[in-house]
Design a protein that fits this description.
By secondary structure, this protein is mainly α. It starts with a helix and ends with a helix. It has one domain. The protein has 5 helices and no strands. α4 (105-131) packs across α5 (149-168). 70% of the residues lie in helices and 0% in strands.
Length: 169
């Protein structure tokens, strides 16, 4: 089997696991399923948007050659916006779940970890796009790399949370 075929098979297995983890989080965790699903989506999207905005506004040193537009300011902007947006979601959690969820230290740490995993996932997908000589996956969101760029971080964040949940329960 060629090395490219082997990587392709690994990619399919990982994507299957990623989709399974989305299904599990959305459907198998009882009354907080929707809330957890939305939390992960909001953390990933706000991390991506925060990274883009803060990187554009504050510029600064580049993070990596793999994804040359990413800056350290963008990393911190991603953290900042993900905390703000998730805090807002948690304050309105009564609309998603019967249990009220407090925004404490544990939740803050989990948000930062999911945001970090999302950013690492984004860089890994950028690496594979560079290998394939694909710059953007669409033009619908100018400057953001396309609609699929929103999903890059989620491809890694959902499996991470699934593994985290499985270990913790």
């Amino acid at each position: 089997m060629s090395k490219n075929k082997q990587y392709e098979i690994y990619g399919y297995i990982f994507l299957f696991f990623s989709f399974y983890s989305v299904f599990f989080i959305r459907n198998e965790l009882g009354e907080i399923s929707l809330f957890l699903f939305l939390t992960i989506v909001i953390v990933c999207i706000s991390t991506d948007i925060g990274g883009y905005l803060f990187g554009k506004i504050f510029k600064g040193p580049k993070l990596t050659k793999i994804s040359p537009k990413k800056t350290y300011a963008g990393v911190f902007g991603g953290y900042f916006l993900s905390i703000i947006f998730t805090y807002i979601l948690i304050n309105y959690s009564k609309y998603f779940t019967v249990k009220f969820i407090n925004f404490g230290r544990d939740e803050l740490v989990l948000i930062l970890i999911i945001s970090t995993v999302s950013q690492i996932g984004d860089i890994i997908i950028s690496y594979f796009k560079r290998l394939s000589k694909i710059k953007d996956t669409g033009k619908l969101i100018p400057g953001h790399g396309g609609v699929l760029d929103r999903v890059d971080g989620m491809i890694f964040a959902f499996p991470f949370y699934y593994i985290f949940y499985t270990i913790m329960s």
